[in-house]
Specification:
The protein is about 45% helix and about 15% strand. By secondary structure, it is of the alpha/beta class. The strands form 2 sheets. Strands 10-9-8-11-12-13-14-15-16 form a 9-stranded mixed beta sheet, with helices on both faces. A 7-stranded parallel beta sheet has the order 3-2-1-4-5-6-7. Helix 18 crosses helix 19. The longest helix has 23 residues. The radius of gyration is 26 Å and the shape is elongated.
Length: about 500
């Protein structure tokens, strides 16, 4: 954001004060659009440009005929030039500017204390200010980002403002999308203020996401003149004895998103139940490690998924190691496959020979990296950068905010999905979705990102129908079917 600011000001020539005025106008417009009462407004301003936005917003609110006051909590000696000017204009217009906590009641409090540059823990007087704001009985709005939230990681820096609404300037900040920061932002509305956001498209440090309007443009093409071979042959190496469910869910998910042919290589004990549950799939079975049969299956497949319910027996370990050493096709590794891989990390070098997608949850990522779950959660983007710099793979780090990362690509941050998806089997469905899309797509990173998002949209659809408590993994597949059908109908229109 700082680089974009600088480019807009220095290269395009839009003065900083103009951007500040636009920010203030958009903050006020958004509050009005959200039907927030501005009758008695208090803007709490720091001494940086975020505070300058706040002073300008107070002036605009006063110009509209509302009662507006400012609580200035920054330091006069450290004020930015723009903030100092905006403060002077407000005072010239007779807008009350306090430096101590007022005793009046307000309809809305606007937080303009700290912006995106905050990186230190909030203590002392600033902590008292934020706690005081949180205690007030008023609607609470944040200018760009709630004070106290790290804009890069979402970490709470000691304490943080709890907003009902956050007006994000130019774009939503990553820390407002990641937890725990997400819990502090309320509703987020991103507003344009004239910053050149096109520069972000080529910056691998800037994340992206999709929303519901994008699906019809993202689904793989289905040609009228085609056959099952056009949509890929999928090999699912999955399901140790007693784990037929993982094999079923992952294979059905791959079919659901459009894969042409799915073959399941699983424990012999699972044959009968899988033939009954999914007669569309080819069922091949093993009782022990058989390298020749595995080679034949790997030659047949266009894409391989290994790990869902695979177990961690000696046979499973041999199958995984053999697969990664011999395969030359796209490979998705999930669940027990990742746990075995964590004991053979050198095999991740296979990603330099063929596309590899890993789908770890936080505990599996901990095993792969040797870092604790707390370390990963504190700065997952840094951990992903280090991991994908070391290993030539696409990594889908599953959590309440799943992130897909690969070296040289912008990270995808999934904002869809909900807590109903926190059920056994959900990860098997995701692995199958990514695999089915990879069978049809040329870009494995795009397949991974699209798979994460489509899986989450299916979860939203399922919750809409069944509520947050009763959704099962199989219901996610039904939700995905509905989402894809709706997108297909939009394409036809």
């Amino acid at each position: 954001m700082k680089n974009a600011d600088t480019h807009t000001i220095q290269k395009i020539g839009i003065p900083s004060l103009v951007l500040m005025e636009r920010a203030a106008v958009k903050i006020v417009e958004t509050l009005e659009n959200e039907k927030v009462s501005l009758a008695d407004t208090l803007v709490v301003c720091g001494s940086g440009n975020n505070g300058g936005d706040g002073f300008a917003a107070a002036r605009i609110i006063a110009e509209k005929g509302y009662r507006a006051s400012v609580l200035f909590v920054g330091k006069e000696t450290s004020m930015s030039e723009e903030c100092r000017l905006q403060k002077q204009i407000a005072e010239n217009l007779g807008i009350p500017v306090f430096t101590t906590f007022p005793e009046e009641e307000y309809t809305v409090i606007i937080d303009a204390v700290f912006g995106v540059g905050l990186s230190r823990e909030i203590t002392g007087h600033y902590a008292e200010v934020i706690e005081w704001m949180n205690e007030q009985d008023a609607f609470k709005a944040a200018a760009d980002i709630p004070s106290g939230i790290c804009s890069r990681t979402g970490r709470v820096l000691g304490t943080a403002f709890r907003a009902d609404l956050t007006v994000a300037l130019a774009c939503e900040k990553l820390g407002c999308a990641l937890y725990p920061g997400k819990k502090y932002v309320g509703k987020t509305v991103a507003v344009p203020i004239g910053i050149d956001t096109e520069r972000f498209r080529d910056d691998p440090a800037v994340c992206f996401t999709w929303d519901g309007n994008d699906m019809e443009k993202l689904l793989p093409e289905r040609k009228e003149d085609s056959h099952k071979g056009n949509y890929g042959r999928v090999l699912m190496i999955t399901g140790s004895a007693g784990m037929a469910g993982a094999a079923y869910l992952s294979a059905k998910a791959a079919y659901t998103v459009g894969a042409g042919l799915v073959q399941v290589y699983t424990s012999e004990e699972n044959r009968q139940i899988l033939q009954q549950l999914l007669p569309e799939a080819i069922i091949s079975c093993y009782s022990e490690y058989d390298g020749d049969t595995l080679d034949s299956l790997l030659d047949w497949a266009d894409v391989v998924c290994i790990g869902c319910g695979l177990g961690q027996s000696g046979t499973s370990e041999k199958i995984l190691c053999h697969t990664l050493e011999k395969i030359r096709k796209s490979c998705i590794i999930d669940a027990d496959g990742l746990n075995i891989l964590s004991r053979h990390r050198e095999l991740m070098e296979c990603g330099s020979r063929y596309p590899v997608i890993l789908t770890p949850h936080m505990k599996e990522m901990s095993r792969l990296t040797g870092k604790s779950i707390a370390e990963i959660g504190a700065d997952r983007m840094k951990v992903l950068d280090e991991f994908t710099e070391q290993w030539p793979v696409t990594c889908v780090l599953k959590d309440s905010r799943t992130v897909a990362a690969r070296r040289g690509y912008r990270k995808f941050v999934n904002l869809a999905g909900n807590s109903s998806m926190a059920k056994a089997g959900s990860g098997d469905v995701l692995a199958g979705v990514i695999t089915g899309l990879t069978a049809q797509e040329k870009d494995p990173f795009r397949s991974a990102a699209l798979g994460v998002w489509l899986h989450a949209c299916g979860g939203d659809e399922a919750r809409e129908e069944m509520g947050a408590y009763s959704v099962l993994a199989r219901d996610l597949i039904c939700g995905i079917q509905k989402c894809m059908k709706r997108a297909e109908e939009s394409i036809r229109k």
